[in-house]
Design goal:
By secondary structure, the protein is of the alpha/beta class. The strands form four sheets. An eight-stranded antiparallel beta sheet has the order 3-2-4-1-10-9-11-14, with helices on one face. β2 and β3 (41-48) form a beta hairpin. It binds 6-O-phosphono-beta-D-glucopyranose. 6-O-phosphono-beta-D-glucopyranose is lined by residues 295-298, 341-343, 346, 349, 392, 394, 599-603. Residues 295-298, 341-343, 346, 349, 392, 394, 599-603 line the site of 6-O-phosphono-beta-D-glucopyranose.
């Protein structure tokens, strides 16, 4: 996935373009480039590395312009080199193009174009676009005609923006599957992969749908359908995030800032309107053969949802990772597919949803980004209101989705009478106390966790162990350690250990065990049994538990003692601890926290 942005204005737009592409860097940060219209000529600057260092090294901001496009790359086709960095130009340099997505028929198009004499400078799929535009412009002498002919040749996914010397006052863009939206300002118009591209300039956004193209100028914009070339009118919607929210706010990293925002995001999750929650509850009750879907962190949210719906409402719904959904899930008209997605743009999750819709299934989703594709294609969406999540490492969004699914489980349990009004009320009270409990952990335990993380930052292999609902928490926690600290970590159900993996214990693999509160008797005792198993083989155990100091003196090699909390919120406390542990391990190992290698905030390609 990449980030594309563009600005065309009455005045100089080069700073706005810089701010916009910088805000999109979480979408990919292998390399970066810009194309600026200057006196009817296109100036292209590009190189490998992050946006800020590139702009500084190339002194890009000395180039003033009223029309420009930019790109930040997450490589899919072609190595991370300067040649494979966007923008790409046509042979005559009259077209400069940035692209996000994958053009699946690029090889055959390239072969044909090379036969016709076009010379290619990169090994990417994207570079076919400027050469196609040049070819069709030569024949029609009309940019719009050349654009439409080019788009009709492309197979696969794309969000494209380009400048052309033939119409220097315009930006042309088009979309199929990869996200694209416009920013409508008074003195300028903007285009971006998401609204962080222009949130510093305007809150007025227009979402572009599949198979549409746009001609953008400083005072106007026109949206047309690629097939019919008929004009399409679209509503302008107001972005309800302020640009400050997507800044670091004095924190060293977005990941830490977003961990510290969790008391507020949990409150926002608990404030989701009752009607929407009950809508999901009814969809679950009315469906058979349903599925919980997500990928990466949101797959572990789906796993958590599976446990909480079963625990609270005796409703077993399998969770399936989006990337495996189509080959695995037997979806029918009676099915509900409930998806989880922070960005709402993850290709695998969208494909699962579209597959389900094609089978007549009901679809719903819990999503953070309003106006995202997932939010618009499902039958019912819950917007979780966690605010912008910029760090590639998802923290607050995942916790908020788990909290919302806990409320869904409680409501469903009440409806199915698997829960009494009293236990429902007690659980809701505990959830309302969760923000305060998390705040306490952040204030009082961060220092200790930092010290432990520093002490064990040399450990190469971690095994995260949890039983029952703590198993998804263990997996998500292991993922955090892998994603941000690049340390090998594996999440595993406690009971599973003795059936194979126990052979590894004692050989440089350390274990972190999430011990439930004593109140959760079966899980508590079962988990302590696993701790004994590991210790019996001289395995190292860091125990995260709620027991009084000294109670388990000899049970753990290291312990992190937490204030006792009601069992319904205990898994969340373990998760916050694990987020901090991974974060501090990564800072100790001097990792690039907000831009971990080879990852991107959400992957919009298959
Ligand atoms: C990956 C991100 O690309 O996509 C993960 O690195 C994320 O952090 C996963 O969990 C799913 O993204 P989303 O936006 O659909 O929740």
């Amino acid at each position: 996935m990449c980030g594309i942005s563009g600005s065309v204005g009455i005045n100089d737009i080069s700073t706005a373009l810089f701010e916009g592409i910088k805000n999109l860097e979480y979408r990919g940060y292998d390399s970066c480039g810009v194309a600026l219209m200057n006196g009817g000529k296109i100036v292209v600057k590009k190189d490998i590395g992050g946006v800020e260092e590139f702009y500084h090294r190339e002194n890009v901001l000395r180039h003033k312009s009223k029309v420009g496009i930019a790109h930040t790359r997450w490589a899919t086709h072609g190595k991370v080199t300067r040649e494979n960095t966007h923008p790409f130009t046509s042979c005559d340099k009259a077209f400069a193009v940035v692209h996000n997505g994958i053009i699946s028929n690029h090889a055959s198009l390239k072969a044909q174009l090379e036969k016709e004499g076009h010379r290619f400078a990169s090994n990417t799929d994207s570079e076919v676009v400027p050469h196609l535009l040049e070819k069709f412009y030569r024949a029609s002498k009309d940019v719009e005609t050349a654009l439409v002919k080019t788009l009709r040749m492309l197979e696969g996914t794309f969000a494209i923006a380009f400048l052309t010397a033939h119409q220097p006052q315009h930006i042309y863009c088009a979309k199929r599957e990869s996200p694209l939206m416009l920013g409508i300002g008074d003195e300028a118009k903007y285009v971006g992969s998401d609204f962080n591209a222009f949130i510093d300039q305007t809150k007025n956004a227009v979402i572009i749908d599949d198979d549409e193209y746009v001609i953008l100028s400083r005072d106007s914009y026109v949206i047309k359908d690629i097939l019919t070339q008929e004009e399409v009118s679209k509503p302008i919607f107001k972005i309800n995030w302020d640009s400050e929210a997507s800044k670091k706010g004095g924190y060293p990293h977005y990941m830490l800032k977003e961990i510290y925002e969790q008391p507020q995001t949990v409150n926002n999750a608990l404030d989701v309107d009752e009607k929407s929650i009950m809508h999901i509850v009814d969809m679950i009750s009315q469906s058979k053969n349903s599925f919980l879907v997500g990928v990466g962190t949101t797959f572990y949210v789906a796993e958590y949802a599976k446990y909480i719906l079963s625990n609270l409402a005796h409703e077993f719904i399998p969770s399936v990772s989006s990337d495996e959904f189509i080959p695995l899930a037997n979806v029918s008209r009676d099915s509900l597919v409930l998806a989880f997605s922070q960005s709402g743009e993850t290709y695998d999750t969208l494909s699962a949803i579209k597959h389900a819709k094609s089978r007549g299934a009901k679809t719903a989703a819990i999503v953070n980004v309003m106006g995202s594709t997932t939010a618009r294609v499902v039958d019912k969406v819950i917007l979780q209101g966690s605010g912008p999540e910029i760090s590639v490492i998802s923290t607050k969004a995942a916790l908020a989705q788990m909290v919302i699914m806990t409320v869904v489980g409680l409501k469903l349990g009440l409806k199915k009478k698997t829960l009494t009004k009293k236990s429902y009320a007690q659980a809701m009270k505990a959830l309302r106390e969760l923000p305060g409990v998390i705040q306490g952990i952040l204030n009082e335990r961060s220092g200790f966790i930092h010290r432990i993380a520093h002490k064990y930052s040399g450990i190469k292999h971690w095994l995260y162990l949890g039983r029952g609902i703590y198993y998804p928490i263990a997996m998500e926690s292991a993922l955090k350690m892998k994603e941000v600290a690049y340390v090998h970590a594996e999440g595993m159900p406690c009971g599973f250990l003795k059936h194979g993996t126990l052979a590894l214990i004692g050989d440089g693999i350390n274990s972190i065990v999430f011990v439930p509160p004593k109140e959760d008797k079966t899980l508590y005792e079962g988990t302590l049994a696993t701790v004994a198993e590991v210790r019996a083989r001289s395995g190292f155990v860091l125990g995260v538990h709620f027991d009084a100091r000294g109670k388990n003196k000899n049970l753990f090699d290291e312990e992190l003692i937490l204030p006792t909390v009601p069992k319904i919120i205990a898994p969340f406390i373990h998760l916050v601890i694990a987020q901090l542990f991974a974060y501090f391990t990564a800072t100790t190992l001097k990792r690039n926290i907000d831009k971990p290698r080879s990852l991107a905030k959400s992957v919009t390609v298959g």
